[in-house]
Amino acid sequence: MQVTLNGVPADLEQTATVASLVAMHGGEHRRVAVAVNGQVVPRSRWETTGLATGDSIEVLVPTAGG
Amino acid sequence: MTTHDVLPALEREEATDPLVIAGETFTSRLLLGTGGVPSLEALERAVVASGSQLVTVALRRVEASTSGALLEVLDRCGVRLLPNTAGCRTAREALLTAQLAREAFDTSWVKLEVIGDETTLLPDAVELLDAAEHLVADGFIVLAYTNDDPILGRRLADAGCAAVMPLGSPIGSGLGIRNPHNIALLRDAVDVPVVLDAGIGTASDAALAMELGCDAVLLASAVTRARDPERMALAMRHAVEAGRLARGAGRIPRRWHAQASTPMEGLPEL
């Protein structure tokens, strides 16, 4: 299915969840936050939150900042 | 008390005069931002030299982030993390960013930044106050980056912000404190801690902030973009301590004419 991942079109498996997405795209980071369509998905709901065609997903990680 | 007892006594007094934000105690009054660091090694040395106990971090898309070791470094330094909402332009963006930061960093503390444009990075007062109200209602401990406006500062404090953080001058400009009078007025206008945030260029700017009555100083670029970040971090630590001591000591009034310190009585006629 087609989604927008961090502003870029991406093709995900139909069975993709937030948890599977983070496993693929979270990289080495142990602290990750995810928003789907402008709503925060708490870590406790990553496994059970499925994704749908057209979803806009942001996968964010810590970085240095003022 | 002999003169030899005075210095240790003053130092003990300083140690028992901590910065308190939302019930949390900090012996250091210097908050350090991590943005602009040349390397994680330089950051670690700068954090240690600064003595800072509260350090800002941000969230960005994974593709654009710095190394995943950032938090390991900050953990090693034993500092508390203060996520920011840098780059947000609206209250809605700031609220979502703060909620994401709460998830990622496991803290409800947030440095609230809502900027009006990219050229000045000045706060958008209307969106800022709206964001502060929503964040406080959502249970956040809000440290609000704001203009050097005593009235807006009071509005933010009234909205429940845990600290009000006026800019000295635009972020990263290094122009120092452009309106010391407003900073002093803001200090008197609110009961929560006032943290001078943004615009610091060098150590004397940080000392001035404390002399004006600020409770702490938050700076990033002045250290991270200095030629020698570690040395500048140490300079800032001393400047904040010196400014705090000078504020407590009470400066002499400014005079138009000279006032001799050597007595005129007993001056010989030569």
From TrEMBL, chain A:
A Pfam match: ThiS
Highest taxon, organism lineage: Bacteria
Gene3D superfamilies (alphabetical): 3.10.20.30
Coiled-coil stretches noted in the UniProt entry, renumbered to this chain: none
Name used for this protein in its record: Sulfur carrier protein
Source species taxonomy: Bacteria, Bacillati, Actinomycetota, Actinomycetes, Geodermatophilales
TrEMBL record, chain B:
Stored SUPFAM superfamilies: ThiG-like
Subcellular locations according to the entry: Cytoplasm
Domain called Thiazole synthase ThiG: residue spans: 21-263
Keywords from the UniProt entry: Cytoplasm, Schiff base, Thiamine biosynthesis, Transferase
Cross-referenced Pfam families: ThiG
GO molecular function, one term: thiazole synthase activity
Enzyme class, spelled out: transferase
Cited InterPro entries: Aldolase_TIM (IPR013785), Thiazole_synthase_ThiG (IPR033983), ThiG (IPR008867)
Catalytic activity of the protein: [ThiS sulfur-carrier protein]-C-terminal-Gly-aminoethanethioate + 2-iminoacetate + 1-deoxy-D-xylulose 5-phosphate = [ThiS sulfur-carrier protein]-C-terminal Gly-Gly + 2-[(2R,5Z)-2-carboxy-4-methylthiazol-5(2H)-ylidene]ethyl phosphate + 2 H2O + H(+)
Pathway: Cofactor biosynthesis; thiamine diphosphate biosynthesis
Gene Ontology BP annotations: thiamine diphosphate biosynthetic process
GO CC annotation terms, alphabetical: cytoplasm
Top-level taxon of origin: Bacteria
Residues annotated as catalytic: 111
Binding residues annotated for 1-deoxy-D-xylulose 5-phosphate, in chain numbering: 172, 198-199, 220-221
Entry's EC annotation: 2.8.1.10
Protein family: Belongs to the ThiG family.
Role according to the record: Catalyzes the rearrangement of 1-deoxy-D-xylulose 5-phosphate (DXP) to produce the thiazole phosphate moiety of thiamine. Sulfur is provided by the thiocarboxylate moiety of the carrier protein ThiS. In vitro, sulfur can be provided by H(2)S.
HAMAP family attached to this UniProt entry: ThiG (MF_00443)
Subunit structure: Homotetramer. Forms heterodimers with either ThiH or ThiS.
Protein name in the entry: Thiazole synthase
Organism per entry: Blastococcus mobilis
Lineage, highest ranks first: Bacteria, Bacillati, Actinomycetota, Actinomycetes, Geodermatophilales
Gene of this entry: thiG
